[in-house]
Amino acid sequence: MVAREGYVITGIALAVGAGLSAGIVLFVSVSWGILCLVAAACVVAGVLLFFRDPARTPPPASDRLVLAPADGRVVVVEHAVSEPLYLGGMAQKVSIFLSLFDVHVNRIPVDGVVEHVKYIPGEYLVAWNPKASEKNERSEIGVRHPSGARVLFRQIAGSVARRIVYHVAREDQVEAGQRFGIIKFGSRMDVFVPQDVALKVSVGDRVRAGETILGRFPTPGREP
Fold first, then answer.
1. pLDDT for 176-196, tens place per residue?
2. What burial class does residue 9 get, using C-beta atoms within 10 Å of its C-beta: 0-12 exposed, 13-18 middle, 19+ buried?
């Protein structure tokens, strides 16, 4: 499956490649036209690879879980950071770096209602730079879990990624594992959760959007 955000780019790549190949065949030579066609096919294959959108199945009881919102490698796990924008206090933070070769379709990490959506223009530092979370172009999406807990996640553009896309709005009812957007060409995702969430990942772990468990909410009636 290919993400819908890739349809236009794929179509443009096909049209340009076919047009150039036909022109070279007519005005240069057949052999050079074939080489151009092969090169165009490789470009289209690369675009399709980047915009691939594989099916994902959330784990059982995902209503009590925080799932990875992006594919990639965990580069930050912090258990005490200030998050005044939506959580309104101290939180835990998990950051995921997406390389050019990872799936870039993003998924909702928790069940709940969208309460906060904001787009922030900014710079394009490399995605693994610690300051990228504060200075780069990004979106912020806050979801209120049915337990009342708040979860904030950010799509962050990198030095190559220059386009953030999301398809959620305030008051939307969402589910963990649901597709919500994409960051094009290498990027980063930050997730902020309450301090009573038991995190299940460490720096260096590979995660898959909509399937890997980042953390677990405390069981009602039990101490965290």
1. 999 999 887 668 899 999 999
2. middle
Separation of CA 34 from chain center: 37
Total Cβ atoms within 10 A of residue 130 = 11
DSSP-assigned letter for residue 219? P
Select which of 29, 133, 187, 202 is catalytic.
Answer: 187
Tokens of 119: 């787009």
Which residue in this structure is represented by tokens 């959760």?
193
Contact 127, 188 (CB under 8 A): yes
Helix (H, G, I), strand (E, B) or coil at 23: helix
Q: Is 139 a catalytic residue?
A: no
The class (CATH top level) of 62-216 is mainly beta
* Sequence-ordered strand ranges (E) for the chain: 65-67, 72-83, 89-98, 105-107, 112-120, 138-144, 150-157, 164-166, 173-174, 179-183, 187-193, 198-199, 206-207, 213-216
What is the pTM (predicted TM-score) of this model? 0.80
